[in-house]
Every structure is written in C-alpha cells, then in structure tokens.
Design goal:
The N and C termini lie far apart (86 Å). Helix content is 83%, strand content 0%. It is built from four helices and no strands. It is mostly helical and 109 residues long. The protein has one domain. The longest helix is centred in the middle third of the chain and has 34 residues.
Length: 109
Amino acid sequence: MMENDDKLIKNFMLANKHEIEDNGFSRRVIRRLPQQAKWLSDILSVICAIICCTLFYIFNGFEILCQTISDIVASQTYYLMSDTNFQSLIIATVVLIIIGVQRVCSLKW
C-alpha cells in the first residue's frame, strides 16, 4: 500500500514539475557565500584564541600546567621505580651503551 502511494506521489510530482529560471541568481549567491563565511570564521577564530589566551593568563594556566606535568612525571617515576629490578636496569643501560659505541665507531670520519 505504501509503495503504491509513493509511486503515485512520485508520478504526480514528476508530471507537475516546474522549472524556475533564476537568471544566474543562484550562482551569484554561491560565489558570495564562501568568502563572507570564511571571513566571519577567521574573525571568530581570532576572537576565540584571544579569549582563550586571556583566560589562560588570568587563571595562572602556566602554573597549573607545570604543576600537572610535574605531578604526572613524579607519579610515573614513582610507579616505575617501585617495581623496577635494578639488575635489569643495569643490563639495559650496558646494552644501550654498547649499541651507542658501535654506532659511533661505525661512522665514517
């Protein structure tokens, strides 16, 4: 039943379709929109960036950022050092030193 109704509506619309000539109106509108929209987008981006930088400065963003990074590094260092086998750490260091020396020796002077 629905398919039949859809077909009837589609046939009716196709039979009564009227083309309206716009004499280039649509083309002119489309040409103007992106430039104005881009200009407005650029202005809004600059305004938002200025507001964000101002708020970052007002609320001591550098201090908060440095403290957060410091806390993350300290907690990760503590977590990694608490379960570290120092013998494995020494072996890894020696291997890295040997690889580094081999790389330096293989360079052509």
